[in-house]
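Operator note (shift B, R.M.): manual run for DegV family protein requested after the automated queue skipped it. Running by hand, logging everything below so the morning shift can see what happened. Input copied straight from the record, untouched. If output looks odd, do not overwrite the archive copy; leave it for review.
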Amino acid sequence: MSIRIITDSGCDISQKEAKEKGIVVLPLTTIINQKEYRDGIDIQADEFYEQLISTDIMPTTSQVTIGAFLDAFEQYKDDEILCMTISSQLSGCFQSASVAAQDYEKVRIVDTMNVSLGSRNLIELALSYIEKGMDIDSIVEQLEMDKTKCKVYAYFDTLEFLKRGGRISSAVAAAGSILNIKPVLTLKEGVIEMSGKARGLKKAGSCMAKCVMEDGMDFSKPYHLAYSGCSKEGVLSFLDNNKELNLDSGKIVQIGPTIGTHAGPGAVAISYFVK
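Run finished. Output pasted below as returned.
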């Protein structure tokens, strides 16, 4: 019996990649000017960012519904299903999947306690475990250990979208704008926390690089870099300014609408595992 991975679009795996990898990515919904778009289906990242910077109205997102998970579980009911969602602390996708799975004995739900690149890295690990022939319960057990070693860091060109989304206060955003302060954020137990801050993007990149160096990456496992917006110039500058990290072989991906709603354009992120 084959194992099928089902996830949500908060992992920033495109529909094209999902098809190539043989996984199912259920889209969250992004709402812009009262119009709903299915992430990665009705709207692509470049179009989303163009709309984001041209409107003063904060887009919102809604989780994958119980019904959407039910439809997916029913479609692949002949497989064992490994459903991996973004952090339950940041989205209701895990809860929706858990409710939908109640009548499906062959479904296992994993809360990645991550978003974007972190969830993506765990999914890639899960794929490697499937290829090795591990059974689904052993994979779940291993992923529960792996996710405690998964790190995510990001810094942001603007605080405006974090403010709009209620992630930081208006006072902090205003001070950051005046002083050119760029926050470096991380995830701890599925919750966004401040890891550091610096004046200017180059120093913010150095701050993030210091975190990476102190952690000690496990290069035997997946790692990715990401950017938000329509240009990858920011992440390329980060790599150029921090060559000591030896990250040239890491894949660079574009952050999609779900996470981009809060990040805004110009963010740079990295995710990896520690030893």
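Quick read of the result: Residues 18 and 24 are 6 Å apart (CA to CA). The first helix runs from residue 15 to 21.
Leaving this for review. - R.M.
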